Amino acid sequence: MATMDDVEETPLLEDQMCFSLYAASRAVTALYRPLLKELEITYPQYLVMLTLWEHGDRGVTEIGDALSLDSGTLSPLLKRLEKLGLVRRERRSDDERSVRVTLTEEGDALRAKATHVPGVVSEAMGLPPVRFAQLQATLRELTRSVNAYRQTL
């Protein structure tokens, strides 16, 4: 008969990295919700807008690569942003399969209304600037490492 000493210890939820990342991601995403509601966009739409504000016109593939989103997820986001009048989608004349996304005047103007968002998020995290930067660097390193490992599977 097996005793408690013979049974492997059940992993604890609080010790799981996946749960810590999941809980932190949900908390931060929930923080964005009321901030972005004022802008009348969702969190994923905000990420698309950030990409366009930073880089200007981009191809759908470039946006998808930057945000790690596939076209099945990205296309509805872009359609909704277009309906909101924030972006324009145009097929390239030299390659009908390729779609370029450009900001409209309204989309460009939204940037000024969104400038407070990163500061509010930073303040809510309660981290000094150096720790905030370190955390970002650690998360980027984690993402790169896990993605590289996944390629070996």
Automatic annotation (TrEMBL):
InterPro entries recorded for this chain?
HTH_MarR-typ (IPR000835), MarR/SlyA-like (IPR039422), Transc_reg_Sar_Rot_HTH (IPR055166), WH-like_DNA-bd_sf (IPR036388), WH_DNA-bd_sf (IPR036390)
Q: Which UniProt keywords apply?
A: Cytoplasm, DNA-binding, Transcription, Transcription regulation
Question: Where is it found, in Gene Ontology cellular component terms?
Answer: cytoplasm
Name the predominant localization.
Answer: cytoplasm
Q: What is its subcellular localisation?
A: Cytoplasm
Record SMART domains: HTH_MARR (SM00347)
Record-linked Pfam families: Staph_reg_Sar_Rot
The Gene Ontology terms for molecular function here are: DNA binding; DNA-binding transcription factor activity
Segments forming domain HTH marR-type: 14-144
The biological processes this protein is annotated with in GO are: response to stress
PANTHER family in alphabetical order: ORGANIC HYDROPEROXIDE RESISTANCE TRANSCRIPTIONAL REGULATOR (PTHR33164:SF5), TRANSCRIPTIONAL REGULATOR, MARR FAMILY (PTHR33164)
Q: What is this protein called?
A: DNA-binding transcriptional regulator, MarR family
Tell me the organism: Amycolatopsis xylanica
